[in-house]
Amino acid sequence: MTMSTKPVRVRYAPSPTGDFHVGGARTALFNYLFARHHGGKFILRIEDTDQKRYNPEAVNWLLNGLRYLGLDWDEGPEIGGDYGPYVQTERLSIYRHYCQQLLDQGLAYRCFATPEELEEMRRERKPKGLPTYDRRYRDYDPDQALARADGGESHVIRIKLPLEGSITVYDAIRGDITFQNEKLEDVVIVKSDGIPTYHMANVIDDHLMNISHIMRGDEWVSSMPLHIHLYNALGWEPPIMAHLPVILNPTGRGKMSKRESRAPDGRVLPVFVRTFEELGYLSDAMVNYMALVGWSYDDKTEIMDREELIDRFSLDRVNASPASWNYEKLDYFNGVYLRTLTPLALTELVMPYLEKAGIKADKATMMQIAPLIQERLNVLSDVSNWVDFFFVDELPPYNLNLLVPKKMSLADMPPILIAARDTLAQTNFNHDAIDAALRQSVETLGIKAGQMFQPIRIAICGKLVAPPLFNTLEILGRETVLKRLDQAISRLEQN
Ligand code: GLU
What we know:
Layout: E1 9-12, H1 22-37, E2 41-44, H2 58-69, H3 92-104, E3 108-111, H4 115-125, H5 142-150, E4 156-159, E5 166-171, E6 175-180, E7 188-190, H6 198-208, E8 213-217, H7 224-234, E9 240-244, E10 247-248, E11 261-262, E12 268-269, H8 273-279, H9 283-291, H10 306-312, E13 323-324, H11 327-338, H12 343-356, H13 363-374, H14 383-387, H15 413-426, H16 431-445, H17 449-461, H18 469-476, H19 478-494
Parallel strand pairs: 1-2, 8-9, 10-13
Antiparallel strand pairs: 3-4, 4-7, 5-6, 11-12
Helix pairs in contact: 1-10, 6-7, 9-11, 12-13, 15-16, 15-17, 15-19, 16-18
The structure holds glutamic acid.
């Protein structure tokens, strides 16, 4: 029962309290894919009723992040729509109306418990496993309550929930879940500042915005009975609900971190959408990877473009069990998408990263290099490690021992590098001629190819992991290559 007869209208309803985490982005993505699959609407609603935790930057992070991921919303901030406004603090008068209705019907009540009283209740009741609030104003005379409220006394409004029996709610991913009513608390639906709580505003908006399906994080499962009771109290039919599996850390232990950290090798482990963007993950790769965090198509197909994801997405294949975030897999996906780019497109993408790394790269040379690194690059911001040596006059000093292949010694290096130098001084400077000439030289010396190629690579790149050698030599050009070989030879001699 995952489809209703209503037109599909789904929403992503973040609270702007902090940075835009990939967990939230995954929720947004599933809603987006579901909407597009069914030709429905994807709505963005800002749930900012918690003014204490409001972070003014958060909305920008969010909107920019959604744009980077290409999750364009059909209704919401900046574009409006027929069901606006889409920011909850702009809807306060709407909420007031329904809260008054619940009060008038005796389905909600004013509560004047002080913070001290609540603290006492908590101390008393928590150890017994009871909900904090002891319902002490539930049967208080409403007229008296109104008089106190009119007199300016601070109070909240609470929902009156059933005291006994149970409620069974249906989740499209988990099936039926039963909750005992006695365990539920008469929670606050309007705070003392007159602003509704998340629960109240969320239920009212989902109804008024004609939301057909709610897809949200699994931390909201425990709120389902409360929400269903609220729908019932308001006389409304609830949307279909689906709670998405939690995302775990790469180790599979514990929820995915809310904060960024560094791996033992110093690499950033991003969790915020804007950090993934900054590091150079492509939008399509992110979308493809994230779609598979908690959903699968057929247990084997992994690389799917946006259209394929939209075409194939269904709630039936969302997994109820938690999924781990896997950075290596994301890198692999990003690599796959990077390899589909033309050299020009790749060049244009990497130029800003080079500039940021302080590398003075010219576009024409980078265009020549692009095909060489395209097979190897996984994350755009790694580009400088691959290409920096192309764009410096002097290589930074490297450890001479790197020159030495296995089973050889430093003393073996000068004759090999001198032979390489002499060969490269004479040959035509293109890939095939360099290849043939160096192999000839290897043969003459009676050594293995690697025993010459490794010292050349180090002498001209300063590192072992570098683009393919002959192309690299060709792009660097004879002058630079000979200069670097000479430098290596003289360093060896002085050693
Ligand atoms: N504002 C809530 C959040 O940020 C929305 C939960 C929901 O989708 O109902 O998690």
